[in-house]
Amino acid sequence: MKKILVFLLVIILATGLANNAFAHKAEIVGNYKISLGWKTEPPMVNKLNAIEIVFTLASDFEKESSQIQSNTLSNISDLTGLADKLEVDVSLNGKKTFLTLKEDPQFPGVYHGDITPNEIGTPVVHLYGKIKDVEFERTFHPEKIEGSSEPNSNPQIVNDVRIPEWVKNNAKWWSEGQVDDKTFASGIQFLLKEKIIVVPVTEKGSTQNTTIPEWVKNNAKWWSDGQIDDKTFASGIQFLIKQGIISV
What gap in Å lies between CA 198 and CA 201, rounded to an integer? Predict the structure, then answer.
């Protein structure tokens, strides 16, 4: 019961954060995963925005890809209080801007550096810092800054797949039997309706089923461990929509 409540709480609390985290780029540093992107996407010229940095614990599968290895045990508390240990600069069209980071009071491990882009272009973000005993330096390439008068400044999503990283925790709990099928399906349905999860348009089939096949749960486990990509996991969600298990 406690895990179910946590599952639902994560969905509710992360709604505001997840809407802006779809196009973040991720890097693995030791035992940690660093995702970076714009707080509001797409970024628009002359509109206040922020670089958003999200620190989470990396899965065992993800750690294998890290060039930096750490033998120190890690926990969620390592991800807080890092604002004064990080240095961030944004390069755009030959100009460099240094950002002041602030930790999000609602979401541990999430940091923002306010910036108002004054030119159209593709920025490069350099991040330097230290988490516990791990020093790192990484370069990220977030979304292009657009002009408000440019065509397609608000493109329609047609065949895109967008699933926030934090949904993997929910998928893992479900695959391990800590959350039941009904709770998981209801949570995914809510996230779809709120457009926090985006999958290609799927028509509901003529038949209705209430049983989730085992392969969908296996996909959830493999996806949460980083063994399959978002599109493969999304195929399971599409199947649940077709079967009428999830309504959108």
Answer: 9
Count the neighbouring beta carbons within 10 Å of the beta carbon of residue 44.
Answer: 20
The C-alpha angle 199, 202, 205, rounded to 5 degrees, equals 145
Cα 84 to Cα 33, 36, 43, 80, 81, distances in angstroms: 19, 17, 26, 11, 7
**Domain membership of residue 30 as a residue range:** 23-140
Contact indicator for 129, 55 with CB cutoff of 8 Å: no
Residues 6+ apart with CB under 8 A from 198: 22, 157, 160, 161, 162, 163, 192
Asked if residue 169 and residue 126 are part of one domain, the reply reads no
CA 118 to chain centre: 26
Least confident span in 68-72, 80-84, 198-202, 214-218: 68-72
Q: Is the residue at 50 inside a domain?
A: yes
Mind listing the pLDDT tens digit for each residue in 25-64? 888 888 888 999 998 888 998 899 999 999 988 888 877 7
In a domain, residue 220? The reply is: yes
Beta bridge partners of 91: 96, 124
Q: What is the pTM for the complete model shown?
A: 0.53
